[in-house]
Amino acid sequence: METANHFSSINHWTYNHLISWGVSEGTAVYLNMLLLLSIVLVLIYAADALAKRLLVGAAQKFSTKTSTQLDDLLIHNKVFHYLAKVVPLTIVVQALPVVFSDFPAWVKPLRTLTDVYTVLLSIWVTRSFLRALRDFMKTTALFRDKPVDSFLQVISIFLYFVGGLLIFSLLTGKEVWAFITAMGAASAILLLVFKDTILGFVASIQVSTNDMVRIGDWITMEKYGADGDVVEINLTTVKVQNFDKTITTIPTYYLISDSFKNWRGMQTAGGRRIKRSILIKISSIKYLSEEEIERFSKIQLISDYLQERKAEIDKYNQAKQVDKSLLINGRSMTNVGVFRRYIDAYIAQHEFTHKHMTMMVRQLEPTTTGMPIELYVFTNDVRWERYEQIMADIFDHLLAAVKYFDLEVFEYPAADDMRHILPKPDTDRSSLYSAMEAMKN
Q: Which residue from 71, 188, 66, 54 is spatially nearest to 135, judged by alpha carbons?
């Protein structure tokens, strides 16, 4: 009220001086309004600059003396910048009735515009504060990997919705509830328009509540070509940075409606699984003779095992009076069985295998491509590049070791293999038929 009285005094003072200078009353009214409007605009500009300088400056000085990041984030998100605009807004509200006192018909619509700006300013202040709060929550361990952006977007939509209702009420002069009642009839259209937003909101809540995905998780969703780290979770989309540095955007509600793989469990457990087979050529599998067992005993990792196993088998065969002139009689060791034991011993002593997780070598069902010997073990390093190196080193060794057990790895014939089998071009037809028969056999 005191500010309004000052403006009223200035109004009378300027009007009286214009009259005393010989300006007609009709012209003095307009000149007085323009003069006062100019003064108010200068005051608004000066008050805005001064308020920003004082408020933001004080906040910056205060933030340097505190250890928390919240005040820095409030400054960064322009909370005090918007709060400073309250000062010039107050001047406008107080000055309007005085500046346009001779034009009362203008006061109401201008006051309505001022009220609309007040609503928008309130939204801007609240939204900037929520952004600062979001950034602060992301710095804490509790919320660092949570979809905080989704909740901010929901609150922002709600703020703009409420702001829109208030602005509608101010511009039309109708009650807010009248507009809400009118919207009830158009609810079906609104649901259709905001379908993705509603689905995304529900999905964000379920994803957060069930802890399905966090920012930083490695997820694989083959249907949408996503294989990488989650970098952002919004209300409607989840952004995944693939390992080739491309970005895949997935609707948030697809994380609930479709299947995907989250590798977080593997990363937190500290072990990544190796599940790969070596295909053994079945025709190379055989029983081991005494001489072959003696030769295999030179392999240090299984030397003790072979001695213990041989003693156990010999004792059994002697007790059963087995005729060992044929190796098929009684109990005998096979080269593939010894090879499996070698793999067991090799992965057990390997420095990069996880000793507290499953370590298993198993024989799978024989197929047309041989008999799979599957290695099922976990590495103790979950980093992708190290995992691939460890797995490659293990299978490099095992593939090279196969021949020491008189085994062969199955593979389809290559071009060079066929050239060694097929006769030369000048060979007669009977020799060609003989070669073909040899290939069949």
A: 71
